[in-house]
Amino acid sequence: xxxxxxxxxxxxxxxxxxxxxxxxxxxxxxxxxxxxxxxxxxxxxxxxxxxxxxxxxxxxxxxxxxxxxxxxxxxxxxxxxxxxxxxxxxxxxxxxxxxxxxxxxxxxxxxxxxxxxxxxxxxxxxxxxxxxxxxxxxxxxxxxxxxxxxxxxxxxxxxxxxxxxxxxxxxxxxxxxxxxxxxxxxxxxxxxxxxxxxxxxxxxxxxxxxxxxxxxxxxxxxxxxxxxxxxxxxxxxxxxxxxxxxxxxxxxxxxxxxxxxxxxxxxxxxxxxxxxxxxxxxxxxxxxxxxxxxxxxxxxxxxxxxxxxxxxxxxxxxxxxxxxxxx
Length: 327
Known about the structure:
Layout: H1 14-19, E1 30-37, E2 43-45, E3 53-56, H2 57-70, E4 74-80, H3 97-108, E5 113-118, E6 132-133, E7 136-137, H4 139-156, E8 160-163, H5 170-180, E9 189-194, H6 201-207, H7 227-239, E10 243-247, H8 253-262, E11 267-271, H9 273-284, H10 290-304, E12 308-311, H11 314-322
Parallel strand pairs: 1-3, 1-4, 1-12, 4-5, 5-8, 9-10, 10-11, 11-12
Antiparallel strand pairs: 2-3, 6-7
Helix pairs in contact: 2-3, 3-4, 4-5
């Protein structure tokens, strides 16, 4: 048959396929989300997230070393306090669990880049992401507490803060307070497009952050909406966000692509707990090849336009890159 164009020509051989790849990844784009809890010498496996643990600060150091040895040099901390109250005071306490974690990491592993999740749901007795006014989260009243949380994390050693609460105006409030305290060069990675998603279920068990009443649909986004995500993203950029995040990643590739084409800042995607748990459950039953699936899911986020990838599979992905499965 006489054919001038044969796309298959570029698929013969692994070396050629890798040379002409349109989507590339490397370890510098990976961020590992870690759970840190009060206590000593404890590591608790999270039942709904096989292979993931809650660590006391001393045990977290072993995980940090393991990550660095794999080539993953960025971590985001989520705190699990012993005490919760209506005001979420553990979030902005200079001796809070996340703050202790950052100080310990920076003392022992200064090369690890530390990112603070800025929210209150893990710390409030009611499980919502802000200060309540009756049965509603008071948006404007919450902003000061979020800014104080971000500042306390930076002063404890965080290199970047990432507000995940979805309150209107929180990026501006955080930027203002950080700047006023001499932290003009600390970047903000905003959870700009965070959907009210069923994919978060295992995380809420892991962090003990499920709301005690109602849900979060009045502040997290409706997953039917894409253009609203662009609006949220543009507002956060105006307020000082340096990086935008889409969460969850797997079901929202169209939104990642939309932000990539609409904005001019780096785009992060969070491969969340439910996505992780689904892969683990299917692989455990022998229905899928775990390594192949986690690589394919990760590449799909980068193909959509992500520059940064938060995932509980960070260490596994780094090792897959070493073996040439992806990259």
